[in-house]
Amino acid sequence: MTTDLERTLAAALRNRADSVPGTPMPVLGEVPPATPHRRGRLLPAAAAVVAAVGIAGAVVALTPDDHQLAPPAHRIGIPADPYELSPGEVYYSRSVRGNGDDDRYIEVEVWQSPRRTGPWQQHAIVGASQRHGRVVPDPHEKPEDTAGTCFPFESAATVGCKQKPSWPVYPSLDFLAGVPSEPGALRAHLRAAAVADAQQLVHDGVLPAGVALSERDLCLRMRSYLEQALAGNGISPALRTAMRKVVASLPGTQVSENVADRIGRRGTGYSLEDPATGERETMIFAGDVFLGTPIEALVHGVAPALGEPPSRLLP
Prior knowledge:
With 315 residues, the chain is an alpha+beta fold. It has 10 helices and 12 strands. 30% of the residues lie in helices and 23% in strands. Helix 7 crosses helix 9 (215-231) and helix 7 (183-203) packs across helix 10 (237-249). The longest helix is centred in the middle third of the chain and has 21 residues, at 183-203.
C-alpha cells in the first residue's frame, strides 16, 4: 500500500464525477492484477468509485466484532422486515479485498441513504491481517474518508447523477426497485441491456461486432452487471434469488462446491471463463446470498446513521 493508493481513493470521486460521459461509462483507475480485465465490459460507477485502488463495496451472519457493535434488537426497534429501513436509517455495506499476491487487505465501508440524492459516506482502511472478517488497521496507514450526495457521485449536480440509471452506468436503488425478480424476465432484461451496451461499444470503435455481440461476451457482460449490483445495496431477497439463478444459468458456467472468499467463508462457486484472458471468474454464493469472489468478501446491513456501526446485518 502506498500513499499514491490513498490519494487515488480520496480523489476517485472528486476527479471523475463532473466528467462522467454518456453510456457506456469507462473504468476509473486500474483493475488489480488478480482481477482479469474485461474487454469493453465496463464497471458501473458504484464499483468505479473504489476500482481505482482495486476495491469494490451480500450478506452474512454477524461476526463476533459485529455482535459487540450492534445494539440489542429490542433497543433499536428493528422492523419486522429486516430489509425495511426505519426513519433515519441508511444502507451499510462492507468489502474486504486483497489480490492474493501479498498480505495486504483493503476494507471499505459505505453508508448510503435510500434516497437517490441523499448523502453517502465511505471509510477505507488498509492492513496486513484480518480478524473475524474485519481488517486489522495498519497504524502506519492513514484511513481515507470520502462523502457526497447521489451515491456514488459527489453531488446531484454532477453529470453522472443526472444520467439515467442503468445496468452499464449505475443500477441505482430506484432502478433496482423496478427490475423484474422472475429469473426469465430478469435474464431478458439483462440481455437487452448487454446487447445495447455492446452495440454502443461497436459504434464507438472499442470492440468489433464479432466480439462484442458474441454469445460469450454478452454472457460475461450480463454477469458483470449482476456482480456489481450484488456488491451494492438495495437488493431484495426475491431479486437476489433471481440473480443467483441467472448467474447459474449462463452458458459455460461451471459449478464448484466449497469455494472460499477472501476471508475464508465458503460456498458454491459459479465460474465463467473470459476468452480474453483464459481466466475463470468466480462468484461465490451461500444459498442465494452473494458472499463475493476469491479475492473479495462482501457484507450488507443497515446502520442507524451515516458513519455509525451497523445495527443489523442482512441475512
